Amino acid sequence: MTGEMMWEAYCRTTNTNCNTRHDIWKFCGGGAAADELANLVLAGIKTATASIKLAYELEGENLPEVGTYSVILFDNEEAACIIRDTKVSVVPFNQVSADHAFKEGEDNRSLKKWREVHRRAFTPDYKAVGLDFDEKGDCVLEEFEVVYR
């Protein structure tokens, strides 16, 4: 099932207006990591995610808000589930909490590993605008619940 097909099924099932803001995306932009993280969401282990605010600015996209829906895709474009943001905050990279890192559910769920992985993931966005990675750069932290699978 495609992302749009899953969104339409969710809207029919819940009487949600299909024009309600929803995004359709893959974790990490795709690849094996997208499948791994989508499966962590489906298993109830991953209940949070993070992105760098600079990426939203580069793409000219609005930041997510509480209530924003996202259709999560596997790398092959198949829809995995729909999540709904329950908490959104903007926090400097060096102030992301161990609690948030744990909720992301990745690797050993430690803050040390979270920082290592996300520093690597966020660096290309800084390089794209000619900057070095910034430990004080803002991260967009989302906590979510699965509302449809």
TrEMBL record:
Pfam families from the UniProt entry: ASCH (PF04266)
Boundaries of every ASCH domain copy: 25-148
SMART domains according to UniProt: ASCH (SM01022)
Gene3D superfamilies: Sulfate adenylyltransferase
PANTHER family: CYTOPLASMIC PROTEIN (PTHR39203:SF1), CYTOPLASMIC PROTEIN-RELATED (PTHR39203)
Protein name: ASCH domain-containing protein
Taxonomic source organism: Gallintestinimicrobium propionicum
